[in-house]
Structures are given as structure tokens and as C-alpha cells.
Design brief:
Distance between the termini: 47 Å
Order of helices and strands: EEEHEEEHEH
Largest sheet: 5 strands, antiparallel
Radius of gyration: 22 Å
Structural class: mainly beta
């Protein structure tokens, strides 16, 4: 079977008790390619689908390219991204890299070792260009919390719909958690 590369969704998946392999998602099924994703990338083309097709719900999706040799990223690489972040379109591309140990699969936990310190960097925009700024002529000061703050901190947590959110945030004993968290 031939696939349209314009509409193809490549994944790395694993069936219980088998080795990870590359596949093509079609609807609620994944068609195995019989090779790993690094081999697909190295070949520069997607091989003809071979091997069985599986129900997507019966396999575990892994990182799209497990253990990539390099991760080179381009920031603000399309107009919509620049517009949604209210940033100017850069005159030269912003290039940055990431380490391969940060690559995880969808739904995999981000495990922070015990004692990890999480830091936040805030940028204040008190200019008239900030459409959420109620009064750009008013001075903004750093200090104790006020109701006139220009920065909001948040974090995102995805909770299984079948879970009780209270259980997710309840402190757990170290022997029952990864990395003693």
C-alpha cells in the first residue's frame, strides 16, 4: 500500500512484549513498518508498510524518534507561532538544541529527581503594545503581591479522566513513587 506523505502520521509504537518499531497511523489503527524510526530517518523515505496493523488503543506510543542523535530546533519557525506569542518575526532564525534525554513519549511522566529546583523567569510588558495592560502609563513595581500584577505564573497538569484529582496531588510515600517523589 502507498501512502500520501502529505497526510502521513509517523509514530514509534510498542506492543506488549515486543521491540519498538515505526508505524503509520490511519484512523484508530497503526500499520507497522518492521523497522525502527532511526532507520526510517536514515533512509530518507518511508518504506512500504509491512507487518501487521494494530488497534491504536492496544499499543503504547513512544517518543516519535527514540534516542535521536541530535535535536536541532528552530524557534518561531512559522508566522502563526510568532503571531500567537505576539512576537516579531525574526530576521534570522533562532536555532537552539535539546539533549536526547528530554525526549519522552505522549503521556509519559516527566520525572524530576528528589530535590529538583524549578525556576521561573518572568518578563513584564508594561508597554502600550501589551493589549492586556490596563494602563501602560502607570508604573509597575517589583515587590509583594498586588492586584495590579503584569505576570501570571502557571503550570499544566494532565490528569486521567478516570482518576480522582485529589489523589494525584496527595503526597505519596517514597517507596511508591519514581525517584522518591
Amino acid at each position: 500500500m502507498r501512502y500520501s506523505e502529505a497526510s502521513m502520521r509517523l509514530v514509534t509504537f510498542q506492543q506488549p512484549g515486543s521491540v519498538p518499531e515505526a508505524g503509520i497511523v490511519e484512523g484508530n489503527r497503526v500499520q507497522g513498518l518492521g523497522v525502527d524510526m532511526i532507520s526510517v530517518c536514515a533512509a530518507g523515505r518511508v518504506p512500504d508498510a509491512r507487518g501487521p496493523s494494530f488497534d491504536l488503543a492496544s499499543v503504547r506510543l513512544l517518543a516519535p524518534v527514540p534516542r535521536p542523535p541530535k535535536l536541532i530546533c528552530v524557534g518561531l519557525n512559522y508566522r502563526d507561532h510568532a503571531a500567537e506569542s505576539r512576537s516579531e518575526i525574526p530576521k534570522v532564525p533562532t536555532i537552539f538544541s535539546k539533549f536526547s534525554n528530554v525526549v519522552i513519549g505522549p503521556g509519559d511522566p516527566i520525572v524530576l529527581p528528589k530535590g529538583t529546583k524549578i525556576e521561573c523567569t518572568a518578563h513584564f510588558d508594561n508597554s502600550p503594545n501589551n493589549r492586556y495592560n490596563p494602563d501602560p502609563t502607570k508604573e509597575v513595581r517589583w515587590g509583594d503581591q498586588t492586584w495590579e500584577e503584569m505576570m501570571i505564573g502557571w503550570f499544566d497538569v494532565a490528569v486521567d479522566a478516570n482518576s480522582d484529582p485529589v489523589d494525584v496531588f496527595r503526597e505519596k510515600k517514597a517507596e511508591n513513587t519514581k525517584a522518591g517523589l
